[in-house]
Amino acid sequence: MLHSLLLNNSLCLKDSALAFGLDRRRPFDADTHRRSGRWRSPEAAVVPNHHLPMRSLEVKNRTSVDDIRSLRLITAIKTPYLPDGRFDLEAYDYLVRMQIVSGAKGVIVGGTTGEGHLMSWDEHIMLIGHTVNCFGSSIKVIGNTGSNSTREAIHASEQGFAVGMHAALHINPYYGKTSMPGMLSHFETVLSMGPTIIYNVPSRTGQDIPPAVIHAVSQNPNMAGVKECAGNDRIKGYADEGIVTWSGNDDECHDARWMYGATGVISVASNLVPSLMHSLMFDSENSSLNSNIMPLIKWLFHEPNPIALNTALAQLGVVRPVFRLPYVPLPLAKRMEFVRIVQDIGRENFIGEKDVQVLEDDDFVLVDRY
């Protein structure tokens, strides 16, 4: 028995040696080894990654990059929750339907506003797939599949396109920031997946995407354009060079659209007043309307988005007052201010059919495990 085990072990060691390219029958020759020159790293350590993107060359839901470039009003859609923190799909469906009825042309699913950073990837891809299955024939579905990990961004984009999203939204690597060549390599890699909008928001990532990087990737056939939060001068520079750009700032989007050459806006405020944002982007230059909704926009961004939006939708009665931590509702004074803003702009311009109300602190549910 012992002899048999030792023999088997010997055979295993021999097979392992052969598997690693070692020939135990050939003695080690020190002179030959010295004559081979300086040490060289194993080939496996220097051969580039030859993985091909897991993609289909079929046009996703008959959507081309040019279709994405033409979208003038895209809403960064809110994700509502049930009291236990799971998705409230009935409320979510209502929010998306209101966007379609009001003329929005696209939705960002699982973006910052939709709290994609608080989702597991399973939740994230499920919500993209749900949106495509229910509404993909009526509105363009753009999945936020970006990540500061290139590996995760590739995997999420593969899955997002496989479940039918029309385009991807990709951010530059945040927190663990990279160099400009690293950023360029990151974008070139994810652009191979399908139609893509690149998102520049230095206030959140801690790193600006410089024009040199955008220029370098602008010739990629999957590059739809840029969601730009670095100001209207930056937008004008891209527009003058034929690069499609959406304003990422609601407070600047009117001027971006009519004075600086932006195609449109990727909006937070359109969750609340989609018809007014549609007018702002589609009708004509309208400084009066822009001024009328500016108090709402300033209120929305008094605290980091989506805190105010979540509070507002709950007070309009269209979502449950459930927050996934670390987000918490605005304080009472700000909740009362929102009611006055709704009255000034007109309740009929906001989504939902219930009267706006001031919610008390005890009305809100904060979920720490979801």
Automatic annotation (TrEMBL):
Task: Read off the SMART domains from this record.
Answer: DHDPS
EC number of this enzyme? 4.3.3.7
Tell me yes or no: is Cytoplasm among this UniProt entry's keywords: no
What are the protein's UniProt keywords? Answer: Amino-acid biosynthesis, Diaminopimelate biosynthesis, Lyase, Lysine biosynthesis, Schiff base
Q: A Gene Ontology molecular-function term?
A: 4-hydroxy-tetrahydrodipicolinate synthase activity
Its BP terms in the Gene Ontology are:
diaminopimelate biosynthetic process; lysine biosynthetic process via diaminopimelate
Instruction: Tell me the pathway.
Output: Amino-acid biosynthesis; L-lysine biosynthesis via DAP pathway; (S)-tetrahydrodipicolinate from L-aspartate: step 3/4
Concerning its family, UniProt says: Belongs to the DapA family.
| Biological role | Catalyzes the condensation of (S)-aspartate-beta-semialdehyde [(S)-ASA] and pyruvate to 4-hydroxy-tetrahydrodipicolinate (HTPA).
Protein's recorded name: 4-hydroxy-tetrahydrodipicolinate synthase
Name the source organism.
Dioscorea cayennensis subsp. rotundata (White Guinea yam)
